[in-house]
C-alpha cells in the first residue's frame, strides 16, 4: 500500500525536508494589510516579522478551505492508496476538522486525519516520523499507532514576550493576559487538552528558558535518546546560542532549530521561544 503524508504549514518543516520525504503541505492563511497570503508559500517567517512592524493592525489568520483539501486529496488519489493528514491542534484551529470532512468527500483514497494536539515542529516530529514509515511501506494503521505512541513522550513548552497577541487572538483568556501584563511575568505556556494554557508564571525571560531546560533535564536524565527542537520567533541568534549550550549538557539529545512562522507568530508575537522534545 502506498501512503501519502500531508500536513499543514504550521508544522514549519523546511522545504528541503518536505521534498526529501515527499511531504505534501496545505497552507493556512494570514490576512495583513488587506491582503490574504498563503503561509510558507506567499509569506515566509522572516518576511512576516518585518512586514507586521509596518502595520497598525494585528494580522488575522484563517484555516484552509475544505475545497483545498478536496483538491489535494483527489490529486493524490491518482498515485496513492491512502493519506495520513497530520494537523495542528483542533483546539485552536478547524484545520484538522477540514481534513476529516474533505476525507469523507473524496473517493478512491482512504484518508486518515491525525490531530497532533499541538503545532510547529512538535507537530513536525509526527509528520517526519510518518513520512519515514510511509517510505518504508508501513500500513497507515501501523503509522497512526506509532504517532499515538509518540504522544506519550512528546513535550513542548514556550514563552512569549507579550501576552497581547494571544489575548486578542482568543488563544488565551483575557483575565490571564491581563494578570501577565500587570505583573510583567514571562509565563511558560503549553498545550493541555488541545488548547494553550499557562504552565507556570516566571518573572524573567532568562528564568523561563532555564525552567524549560529543567523540564528537558527531567526526561533526558533517563539516558534515553531524544529528538529536540528549539523554536523561535525571529530570534535565530538566541536560538543557536541556546542550542549550543544545551548540546554540551545533553549528549543523548539531538537538537535542531525551528521557527514560529506567520500564523503561529501572529498569535505569539515576535520574540517567542520554545523547546519541544520526543523520545526517539
TrEMBL record:
Keywords from the named record: Lipid-binding
Q: What is the protein name for this chain? A: DegV family protein with EDD domain
What is the originating organism of this protein? Falsibacillus pallidus
Q: Does the keyword Oxidoreductase apply?
A: no
Q: Which NCBIfam families match?
A: DegV (TIGR00762)
Q: Which domain of life is it from?
A: Bacteria
The UniProt entry, under InterPro entries, shows: DegV, DegV_C, DegV_domain_contain
GO MF terms on file? lipid binding
PANTHER family recorded: DEGV DOMAIN-CONTAINING PROTEIN DR_1986-RELATED (PTHR33434), FATTY ACID-BINDING PROTEIN TM_1468 (PTHR33434:SF2)
Record keywords: Translocase included?
Answer: no
